[in-house]
Amino acid sequence: MKIGILPLGRPTFDVPFAEEKLSAMLGALDASGHDIVGPRALLFDEESTRAAMADLTAADIDRLLILQVTFTDASMAVAAGAGFDQPMSIWAVPEPRLGGRLRLNAFCGLNLASHALGVNGRSFGWLYADPEGDIAAELAALLSGERQGGRLDAQPSQGRTAEGARVAQALRGQRIARIGDHPVGFDTCAYSASAVEALAGVAVDALALDDLFDAAKAVPQEAAAKVRVIAEADVTGLDDVDQAELDRSLKLKAGLDDIRARGGYDAFAIRCWPETFTQYGGAVCGPAAMLGEGKVPCACEADVYGALTQLVLLEAAQAPVFLTDLVDMDSEDNTGVVWHCGQAPISMRDAEADATATIHTNRKQPLLYEFPLKPGPVTFVRISQAFGEPKMVLAHGEMLRRPKSFTGTSGVVRFDRPADAVLKDIIASGLEHHMALAYGDHRATLRAVAAELGLPLLEI
């Protein structure tokens, strides 16, 4: 066959390492016996990607293969899916869990693409495998169409209980402040305010990023000093980061407190990047960790359904919650890694590990929290819009005591089912890239909440 490739990447990740992985991917493809056409260098932007797509159209390919070398948003995957009638596949590469920065984050790119393609009704095949391993058979299966994503749907929920009714009733009248629009290509964060209110009785107010920035800039220095005292009780190393950037970050926390008080908000969904770094000059991750510990959930990337999910889990667990990405699955170790830049509530810290102040790995500004998550049973939930149909997705596992996998806040989890099975279900379900996590087993309550809200249920 003639295989057309689109090697996707972003320059904010580890480009030399990505180029090494791309070289190994190309070597494996060249060894497959197929005719490989298309660019053999990373495509970093829409212009170069669309130019490459035009060349592949002229080349009359038999199959399109996206090489998900680093994280990217889903916009080009959706454009490619719409622009080609030929079968389509995505190959994403894992990276070692070495405790340093998340150098590629390619799995999250696959996750975003699978959700967006599912919403758009575009079938695709997929592979998550290291190109330097023994992958000839898996690659052959991918290129022959044997590794399709498929579609896994939820089933009607049942079993209403008093506790489920309590949680559903507690949600009614709560309010989410969405601050800024979700990033382009993050179909996972799309929402309808009227649909959220009809589902759960939760109102969503749309605020501008400047509302937050203006509130933060107006924070008196004494108020910022009080936030610093909170941070000093949580993490060490505040003196080791840029102090002007740290001050701006701390003022974001006070600014959010002010917005919350004025608007009566119970949760936030914030467009955290790039503008908090590029326009304002400080990270909102540490402030989100502090708010989360105070049982005021914050969702990154203006993910309103992520904020709604956190409110549901917060009511069910009566404990802090963490909106996290799944960034790796390892079938040999039978574990996954959950991670976010540095915003887990401090009560989730492993007591045997340090909690330190750090900077964002890509944007290089504070304040982020850094620590591994503590061991113990954990429940995952998402109020999902996969395939354009609302549902509740549930999972359960055991967080293991492991060294931190990546910078920021991360944990190694062993799901109740084999990692390979969970991974296949994540792709087949079209699940969003954010899930809410809380310690303990809250599935019985959440099943009852799904029944109360009339949400179909999918357990993975």
Give average pLDDT, whole number.
Answer: 97
Count of DSSP strands: 18
Shape: globular
Strand order of the largest sheet: 10-11-16-15-14-17
Largest sheet: 6 strands, antiparallel, barrel
Question: Approximately how much beta-strand content do the residues carry?
Answer: 15-25%
Counted by DSSP, the helix tally is: 15
What fraction, in percent, of the residue positions are helical?
25-40%
Estimated structural class: alpha/beta
Low-confidence stretches: none
Separation of termini?
A: 35 Å
Global Rg? 22 Å
Describe this structure in words.
Helices cover 38% and strands 22% of the residues. Strand 1, helix 1 and strand 2 form a beta-alpha-beta unit. Helix 6 crosses helix 13, helix 9 crosses helix 10 and helix 10 crosses helix 12.
Furnish the topology, listing elements before pairings:
Blueprint (H helix, E strand, L loop, with lengths): L1 E7 L6 H16 L4 E3 L8 H14 L3 E6 L6 H9 L4 E5 L13 H14 L5 E4 L7 H8 L18 H10 L3 E5 L13 H8 L2 E5 L1 H9 L3 H14 L8 H21 L3 E4 L4 H6 L4 H9 L4 E2 L4 H14 L4 E9 L4 E6 L15 E3 L9 E5 L3 E9 L6 E10 L8 E7 L3 H10 L5 E6 L3 H11 L3 E3 L1
Parallel strand pairs: 1-2, 1-3, 3-4, 4-5, 6-7, 6-8, 8-9, 13-16, 15-18
Antiparallel strand pairs: 10-11, 10-17, 11-16, 12-13, 14-15, 14-17, 15-16
